[in-house]
Write a structure and sequence with these properties.
Length: about 325
């Protein structure tokens, strides 16, 4: 086998193998997950550093930067050691780490479970959607529960699939793992509450930067998955900015445009009401058929991203 073909296989194989593993298994609850370890590291650092006597903004920035660098360096070391053992070991380690970094199947299952739970009762639906959103779900109506689930599905396509693959393309598995630490930091301390406003500011901004291009790429892939209509692109350009986050609105706008519905609006986080603009204008009820269509859009978008990453990696190695 020519050497360049062998190198391309070694670089592209982990992406394809990891994605297929995620497609087949999701995140098995019995399997230890690096993100759980990331969460424990963040929680320990936050307890120690997020105190009134400290400069919370500086402490939070130091903690976030340190954790990201540690994850990048330790992943690079792990893959270097695996490569020394054998090419197969290197591919295996990278494939497993890619598998850990992708979350498309798990969120798809969770969103399906929300709609199934709602068929039983509103309380069951509220409890189920609370597993995947950070907002207060105790007062949500049935349609608000469905909306929250589909908004999360769209946002997770960016955070859980496209963005990790984007950083794999740029910086390999170490970059992918570092991104997951950034994303976990934002999900734990990146809130505009009294406790986290200063301490989590750097983590939130870092997450905004890390997701800026992937979020817009996600929206583009979703529009392509729906046929690439010009009106759909215009809808995304109009409503992609209608969100408190500089990034979350883009995939949400792409899905709202595909379904012909309305997302967004004010939400409660940790007992505090945060005003948010609406994405779209058609406040129609959502259904299980909408959820199934959204899942298909997500899957097609994932496939497009896998093909893009594999193609660009191959071209980079060839030329």
């Amino acid at each position: 086998m020519p050497e360049h073909i062998y190198i391309i296989m070694c670089v592209c194989a982990p992406v394809i193998i990891g994605w297929v593993l995620d497609l087949l298994f999701g995140d098995p609850r019995w399997l230890p997950h690096p993100v759980v370890l990331f969460g424990k590291m963040i929680a320990a650092g936050e307890r120690k550093l997020n105190r009134p006597e400290r400069n919370r903004r500086v402490s939070g920035a130091v903690m976030a930067a340190t954790l990201v660098v540690v994850v990048f360096a330790s992943t690079w070391l792990l893959t270097a050691v695996a490569d020394k053992l054998s090419p197969v070991a290197g591919i295996a380690v990278r494939s497993i780490l890619v598998f850990f970094c992708l979350a498309g199947t798990t969120l798809t299952r969770e969103v399906r479970d929300v709609f199934i739970a709602l068929d039983r009762s509103l309380d069951a639906g509220r409890r189920q959607v609370a597993r995947i959103v950070g907002r207060d779900t105790s007062e949500l109506s049935s349609d608000e529960v469905r909306t929250a689930a589909l908004e999360t599905l769209a946002e997770n396509l960016s955070d859980g699939v496209v963005a990790p693959l984007f950083w794999y393309l740029l910086l390999g598995v170490p970059g992918m793992m570092a991104y997951k630490m950034i994303n976990t930091l934002d999900s734990m301390v990146g809130y505009r509450t009294e406790r986290y406003l200063d301490f989590g500011r750097f983590a939130a901004r870092l997450d905004d930067v890390a997701n800026w291009l992937p979020a817009r790429l996600t929206a583009f892939l979703m529009v392509l998955s729906c046929g690439g209509r010009l009106s759909h692109f215009r809808f995304v350009l109009r409503y992609g900015r209608c969100h408190a986050s500089p990034n979350s609105g883009w995939p949400e706008a792409a899905l709202a445009g595909a379904l012909g519905c309305r997302f967004g609006g004010p939400h409660y986080y940790f007992g505090t009401l945060f005003p948010k603009p609406y994405i779209g204008t058609d406040d129609r009820p959502l259904s299980t058929a909408d959820m199934k269509k959204a899942v298909v859009i997500n899957r097609f978008s994932e496939i497009l991203m896998i093909l893009i990453v594999a193609s660009l990696l191959s071209l980079r190695l060839l030329f």
